[in-house]
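seq:
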Amino acid sequence: MDKTGNPRASIIVQPDGTPTLRLADAQHGRIGMDLTPDGRPGLALLGADGKTRASLTVDGDGVGALTLFDAAGNPINSVP
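struct:
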């Protein structure tokens, strides 16, 4: 927490052992990093409203993907 009591970082471990790390500004979470139960990593970048605006993931075959989201949280573009 920062000096005013706002949470700025958290580590969450689900019952299956899956970890998530979240970093925040004074109002919202801004970055989230996690692993799926089978070990696939993911990174999410959140806007000032707390909604995901971009994500970087790796699938089970080791192929990476970048996905961009609109203000409503809908995917608008992805590579590949």
